[in-house]
Amino acid sequence: MEWLLVFSLGAAPFGRAIVSSPMPEDRWFAVDKAKHFAVSAAVQSASHRVLRANGHDYRSASWHAAAFTMTVGVGKELWDRRQGRVFSWKDLGADAAGGATGAVLIRQMAP
């Protein structure tokens, strides 16, 4: 899982190279970011619960759910790029924050 963080941080300076057209305004605090945050929190929580129900221990379920959550987020950005929209690193930041929040909420409810 650490490789995902290292890759994300290491690839950050190249974010503009992914975008072929001028970037529209991509604000940190926007309705789109709130949606990314909420969906990622829900994906993290739901996938963790499904993994736990299928026999994974808490730690394994947490890491797998986090990987799945970020895969969904990156997939969404790749889809945006394919549709001619901007690949947003800020959206991925909102996804990461939402996933972390989902993990904390699950931890608070874990037996």
Uncertain runs: 1-17
Rg over C-alpha atoms, rounded to the nearest angstrom: 15 Å
Mean pLDDT: 83
The profile of the biggest β sheet is: none
Count of individual beta strands: 0
Question: Describe it for me?
Answer:
- This protein has one domain (28-109).
- Helices cover 75% and strands 0% of the residues.
- The protein is built from 5 helices and no strands.
- It has helices at residues 2-11, 15-18, 31-53, 58-82, 89-109.
Fill in the keyword field for this structure:
111 residues; mainly alpha; 0% strand; elongated; disordered N terminus
Summarize the entry for a quick read.
The protein is mainly α and 111 residues long.
List the helices and strands and how they pair.
Blueprint: H1 2-11, H2 15-18, H3 31-53, H4 58-82, H5 89-109
Helix pairs in contact: 3-4, 3-5, 4-5
